[in-house]
Amino acid sequence: MGEMINANGAEFWVERRGQGPDVLLIAGLGDPAEVWQAQLDGLSDRYRITAFDNRGAGRTPLPEGPLSVPGMADDAAALLRALDIPAAHIAGFSGGSLIAQELALGHPGLVRSLVLMSTWARSDAYLRTMTGFWHWMAERAPSERAMLDAFYLWVYTPRAHADGTVEGFIEETLAFPHPQSTEAFQRQLEAFRTHDTLDRLAQITAPTLVLAGELDRAAPPRLGRVVAEGIPGARFEVLPGEAHQPFQEVPDVFNARVDAFWREVEARG
């Protein structure tokens, strides 16, 4: 069970599981903490896992005014401090990976290491056009199911569409009692599509692992490679046959990879 935590002037829904070195998981566009269920279940025997709802997702309210990635990074930092976590391994995917970048830049002492899944440093023309389409699609789709049917084409592999995995995710999303509003989706999206750390990545000092899905249409490997090349000492790996969210589609593979990375960082002290 989770709880509401006051941090940075807002109430955030937080779920925590397990014991061991601290890990903070940061979700992407529209996703509540539950998106990390396979990590909350699969890694909590070795780590103390914390996941939370970003502003405007799940049970965390949408504030007045625009959202920004640095502001959401400040939220994550405030949550760590409110939970008395001096430093944590940070893992973020998609929009959450952008928040993780800003967290490492603005609050380096809180970041033990970084895992950036499906990430980018600056939107290119393809990403800007794609996210522009998502913005008006959220308003004009004839139903929530139709919106999810279209949106998930960019998120999951053809395999997951064929074997019923995507249909299961759609049913779970439609049944979730805290759906995201169109306004919240669009405001989060605007923050993520204007993200730009390209000229600041060299300032990141935390050990970093950048992961990309070979078949990812939303954040293809070419964007992740730029991030890895910009962060001193970062590793870059492409997951063959995977798309935007392998931590959901192949959680055992993802969990084993990040566990190995975190164990290596811990061993180095």
TrEMBL record:
Q: Which UniProt keywords apply?
A: Hydrolase
Query: Which residues, if any, are the signal sequence?
Result: none
Q: Where is the AB hydrolase-1 domain?
A: 23-246
GO terms, molecular function: hydrolase activity
What PANTHER family does the annotation carry? AB HYDROLASE-1 DOMAIN-CONTAINING PROTEIN (PTHR43433:SF10), HYDROLASE, ALPHA/BETA FOLD FAMILY PROTEIN (PTHR43433)
Q: Name the chain's protein.
A: Alpha/beta hydrolase fold protein
Q: Which organism is it from?
A: Streptomyces spinoverrucosus
